[in-house]
């Protein structure tokens, strides 16, 4: 038996075990993409008055739309190409995009929470003006980039070895490629920020 055939069989066998995960990811992609697209459509085309307290909503929606789409595409690609990942650029690009947009989305929720707190609990005190809100978005993007750049450094294609049907099979997987300890990887993330 040819080793390439064995690797393809190993990959096919792995895909068959993950069919429920693939279906779930496709459902999440459809719901997330549709939901976020509807929010953007309503915000830009149906709202007559765009109040200042909704300034962050389209930005959050775009981050969520990109994060959800990239994440499901990455996972589905990873399921289908478990031991024969197609491209290092796809691997690194999707991991970086997921890290960037997920981190930005989480930080955006913190800023939205802070804005709501200031409007409700401190209505006569410090508020987020238009300039401060724009600065907050740039700070969020900067912080998210500082957390995400190390992801692009430590991910890539890596040889994986396993046994399938009595054969030792080597494939290529998208994963952490740094030949360092987890403590060092954590230090990379801390130093980048």
Write the layout of secondary structure elements.
Layout lengths: L2 H15 L1 H28 L10 H24 L7 H34 L8 H25 E10 L2 E10 L5 H11 L1
Antiparallel strand pairs: 1-2
Helix pairs in contact: 2-3, 3-4, 4-5, 5-6
Quickly describe the structure.
It comes from Mytilus edulis (Blue mussel). This protein is mainly alpha-helical and 193 residues long.
Mean pLDDT: 85
Shape: elongated
Helicity range: over 70%
Point out poorly predicted stretches: 186-193
What is the overall number of helices?
A: 6
Rounded radius of gyration (Å): 21 Å
Order of neighbouring strands in the sheet with most strands? 1-2
Strand content: 5-15%
State the total count of DSSP E strands. 2
Characterization of this structure:
- The protein is mainly alpha-helical and 193 residues long.
- The protein has six helices and two strands.
- A two-stranded antiparallel sheet has the order 1-2.
- It starts with a helix and ends with a helix.
- The C terminus is likely disordered.
Question: What keywords describe this structure?
Answer:
G-protein coupled receptors family 1 profile domain-containing protein, two-stranded antiparallel ribbon, elongated, transmembrane helix, mainly alpha, transmembrane
């Amino acid at each position: 038996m040819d080793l390439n055939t064995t690797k393809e069989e190993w990959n096919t066998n792995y895909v068959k075990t993950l069919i429920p995960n693939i279906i779930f990811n496709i459902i999440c992609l459809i719901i997330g993409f549709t939901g976020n697209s509807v929010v953007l459509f309503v915000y830009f085309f149906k709202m007559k008055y765009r109040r200042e307290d909704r300034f962050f909503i389209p930005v959050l929606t775009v981050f969520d739309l990109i994060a959800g789409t990239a994440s499901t595409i990455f996972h589905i690609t990873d399921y289908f190409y478990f031991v024969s990942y197609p491209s290092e650029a796809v691997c690194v690009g999707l991991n970086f995009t997921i890290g960037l947009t997920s981190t930005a989305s989480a930080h955006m929720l913190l800023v939205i929470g802070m804005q709501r707190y200031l409007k409700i609990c401190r209505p006569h005190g410090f508020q987020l003006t238009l300039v401060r809100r724009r600065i907050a978005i740039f700070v969020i993007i900067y912080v998210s980039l500082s957390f995400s750049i190390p992801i692009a450094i430590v991910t890539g294609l890596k040889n994986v070895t396993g046994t399938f049907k009595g054969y030792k099979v080597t494939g290529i997987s998208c994963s952490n490629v740094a030949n360092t300890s987890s403590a060092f990887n954590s230090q990379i993330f801390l130093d980048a920020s």
